[in-house]
Amino acid sequence: MSTMQLEIKKNIVEMELRKLYAIWLREYKVFLREKSRLIASTFTPLLWLFVIGGGFGSTVANPSVVSLIGNSPTQGEIVARIDYQQFIFPGIICMSVIFSSVFFGSYIIWDRKFDFLKSVMVAPVTRTTIFIGKTFGGMTTSLIQAAILLVIGLVIGIHYTTLSLVAIVILILLLSFALTSLGLTLGSYMESLEGFQLIVSFVVFPLYFLSGALFPLNNLPTWLSILTAVDPATYAVDALRNTMLGLEGKNLFFVDIGILLLSVIALGTIGMLSFRRMKSV
Predict the structure, then answer these.
(1) CA 189 distance to own-chain centroid
(2) Which residues contact 60 (CB under 8 A, 6 or more apart)?
(3) Distance CA 224, CA 219 (A)
(4) In terms of residue numbers, what domain contains 273?
(5) pLDDT, tens digit, for every residue of 99-111?
(6) What is the pLDDT of residue 221?
(7) How big is the chain by its Cα radius of gyration, in Å?
(8) Domain total in the chain
(9) Contact at 8 Å (CB) between 234 and 149?
(10) Mean of the pLDDT values across residues 151-164?
(11) What is d(CA 11, CA 232) in angstroms, rounded to the nearest whole number?
(12) pTM for the full model?
């Protein structure tokens, strides 16, 4: 390959990266300007953490002990100090990511109504770049919201290390990419915001409740175990619980990461194909 060809390819890559950055920056600035969106998206997880966590925590047995039946007594003694609020905290983090990521697809419908999407579609930029740029925007939004909750986690006794924070950020970004791709895929086929919200309601609540955010995954009925196994959020909750609380999950940490990566590839590919077929108006 000649030097000129390499230079042309380099220029093309740089142009695509600038376009990708511009789309991401637009989504990021829109989020920063909507203060009410940040407040509302933080309030619901906090409500679940302190009201549901505090209420059920005062009446149920320690779930961390129940989930470790058959494991080593040493670890059982360690996790006996984990209360219900701490147990569901990784699930609350995933709850924030699930809701913000999937509902991010509604902005495709808004963009279509205000003709912004039409302008982007006719610009010299590939639809794959548009999809990835918007997905990165959704990931940034989810990470900011999760960061606020991570700070609040210190209040209820969650302790972090540098290594655990790196792992937590990676898990949040993987889950957010997969679910933002899902939200954008749904949004690309919908023309009505009301219709999108109706359809998404049948997506986000099963994703959340089947993830094991509120209960341990051991000793579940067979039908429920099957449903939790096909939920990508299950593996994020399992890995986060392992990272934050030191609890042995249903799967090994690297198995959870691997399945999340497969979810990213599968949902990302579906999203890109959906964007290529999407009408701009």
Answers:
(1) 21
(2) 84
(3) 10
(4) 3-277
(5) 888 888 777 777 7
(6) 87
(7) 20
(8) 1
(9) no
(10) 89
(11) 37
(12) 0.85
